[in-house]
């Protein structure tokens, strides 16, 4: 396993094994076994309305029957575009029961992005939030079925009643949650009420069948679809729960604030929470005040999030004098965790926070710091159990680099996917001799991986990947923009700020940040919109004419402040 492994083991918490069990069943059996072991344990708390594991299992089996009636069978793909809500959880496990694939989409993504993703996976059925239903009209036009979900339908009765009041505040909240259902769509919430549980003789998926498709830019910024098997996801869930081995079955409460369509949210909240028989506090959006209110009602013990979440919750808890010391276990992922945020969190809770590292292609976690005094803030961490990691020369991946020298992270393990959806060339480029090439550059420091650089020029803001070329293509259409480069500039809260370096078409007329954001918002998700703008006289380029983004970033950081 190499020197990284041999050194890393010395820093493992004593209760963490070197290898984990690799499951050989469908994820459906994870929910089924938990529901049988803890039938009356609360699985979901949604604004105070609760469902036990036996109720969730029954709903998932009814949902499977509904989807089967819509023509879904084992091996088919179904598009999901939902915020976190009980229906999302239920539909996910309904698909796991059918042996169908859940293609997870960001419900706030623009239509153009959704259509590209639908084109790659070819799903003929979709279950989506009312507010984004129009983005899935092509499925209905091609003869498929689209079900819409009312995310307020499973709120407590008094809260649903309040949304109907003729008050401005009620109308404002309702407008954020509800949307019109098109004539060509059906109501999931109405249809599932009439269903029976699916017959036991309907065949199940096998462990190596595709369970989920996530959408990513992969390692080079070109949009791709990542298929993950039941085994990939369940194995990574085991790796994470064995890493935090002190979590107790049927005794934990998770804050499920990361979106289910995000790789970290999917594995930790859709799967790991179920494996532990934990209760999830579920909210459709990240709202600090609502999260703390729910925590006061049902104290949280485990929280997985991105650094800005930890920063905002710790500060709000201090301001509101809310005790969050029950959160004994905290894992940050998606982007580097700054020392200042880590220290604030640990001072506020009295417990450790650790950093994890991974990619959608690895289900997602590869490594993490130990939940012990040996944790290292700012480090990616130690390779996980059953995970083989090596650092190589990115120009010659047959050559491993010496300890302390930067090298590309290559990984093998049961959580690593086998290739991109319908993209042989991208898959070929992503692997070398059976090892997945992450595209990230790190150093081995005494068994801990420490990020040195990115092989590609992604901007990671609040845990989301932003691909500069995609943003640049949009902003180049602005009439006042002659040329533009997108880079990330450091920020303690969100990791990196999406920053536009602009050469104006007319020297006397610089475009405003607001006009750039307005243009970009028509085709890009909100997290990809530029949040800062700098004026450059010209963009630095190589002799081949390629924009040197690292040089752009250096120039920007040398300026006093954004315009």
UniProtKB/TrEMBL annotation:
GO terms for molecular function: acid-thiol ligase activity. Coiled coil: none annotated. InterPro entries: AMP-bd_C, AMP-bd_C_sf, AMP-dep_synth/lig_dom, ANL_N_sf, ATP-dep_AMP-bd_enzyme. It holds the Pfam family AMP-binding_C. SUPFAM superfamilies: Acetyl-CoA synthetase-like (SSF56801). The keyword Ligase applies. Residues 32-421 form the AMP-dependent synthetase/ligase domain. This is Long-chain fatty acid--CoA ligase. It comes from Boudabousia liubingyangii.
């Amino acid at each position: 396993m190499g020197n990284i492994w041999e050194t890393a083991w010395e820093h493992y918490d004593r209760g963490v094994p070197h290898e984990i069990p690799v499951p050989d069943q469908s994820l459906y059996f994870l929910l089924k076994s938990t529901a049988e072991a803890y039938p009356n344990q609360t699985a979901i708390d949604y604004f105070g309305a609760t469902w036990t594991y036996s109720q969730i299992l029954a709903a998932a089996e009814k949902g499977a029957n509904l989807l089967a009636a819509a023509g879904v069978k084992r091996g088919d793909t179904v598009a999901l575009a939902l915020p976190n809500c009980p229906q999302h959880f239920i539909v996910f496990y309904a698909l796991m029961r059918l042996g169908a694939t859940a293609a997870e989409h960001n419900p706030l993504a623009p239509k153009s992005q959704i259509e590209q993703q639908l084109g790659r996976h070819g799903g003929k059925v979709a279950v989506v939030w009312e507010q984004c239903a129009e983005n899935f009209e092509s499925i209905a036009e091609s003869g498929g079925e689209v079900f819409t979900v009312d995310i307020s339908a499973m709120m407590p009765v008094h809260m649903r009643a309040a949304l109907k009041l003729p008050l401005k505040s009620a109308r404002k909240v309702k407008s954020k949650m509800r949307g019109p259902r098109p004539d060509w769509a059906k109501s999931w919430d109405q249809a599932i009420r009439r269903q029976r549980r699916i017959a036991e003789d309907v065949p199940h998926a096998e462990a190596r069948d595709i369970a989920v498709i996530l959408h990513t830019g992969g390692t080079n910024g070109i949009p791709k679809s990542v298929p993950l098997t039941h085994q990939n996801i369940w194995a990574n869930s085991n790796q994470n729960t064995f890493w935090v081995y002190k979590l107790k079955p049927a005794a934990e409460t998770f804050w499920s604030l990361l979106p289910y369509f995000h790789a970290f949210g999917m594995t930790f909240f859709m799967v790991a929470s179920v494996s532990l028989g934990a209760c999830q506090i579920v909210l459709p959006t990240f709202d600090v005040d609502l999260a703390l209110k729910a925590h006061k009602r049902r104290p949280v013990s485990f929280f997985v999030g991105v650094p800005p979440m930890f920063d905002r919750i710790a500060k709000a808890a201090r301001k509101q004098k809310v005790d969050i010391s029950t959160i004994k276990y905290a894992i940050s992922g998606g982007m580097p965790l700054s020392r200042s945020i880590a220290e604030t969190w640990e001072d506020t809770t009295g417990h450790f926070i650790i950093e994890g590292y991974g990619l959608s292609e690895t289900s997602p976690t590869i490594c993490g710091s130990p939940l012990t005094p040996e944790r290292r803030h700012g480090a990616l961490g130690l390779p996980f159990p059953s995970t083989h990691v090596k650092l190589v020369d990115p120009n010659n991946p047959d050559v491993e680099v010496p300890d302390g020298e930067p090298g590309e992270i290559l990984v093998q393990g049961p959580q690593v996917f086998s290739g991109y959806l319908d993209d042989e060339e991208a898959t070929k480029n992503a692997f070398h001799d059976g090892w997945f090439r992450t595209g990230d550059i790190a150093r081995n420091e005494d068994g801990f991986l420490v990020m040195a650089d990115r092989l590609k020029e992604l901007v990671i803001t609040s845990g989301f990947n932003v691909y500069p070329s995609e943003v640049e293509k949009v902003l180049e259409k602005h009439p006042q923009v002659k040329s533009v480069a997108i880079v990330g500039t450091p920020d303690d809260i969100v990791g990196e700020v999406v920053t536009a370096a602009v050469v104006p078409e007319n020297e006397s007329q610089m475009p405003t940040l607001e006009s750039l954001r307005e243009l970009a918002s028509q085709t890009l998700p909100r997290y990809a919109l530029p949040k800062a703008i700098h004026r450059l006289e010209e963009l630095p380029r190589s002799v081949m004419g390629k924009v040197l983004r690292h040089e752009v970033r250096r120039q920007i950081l040398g300026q006093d402040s954004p315009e």
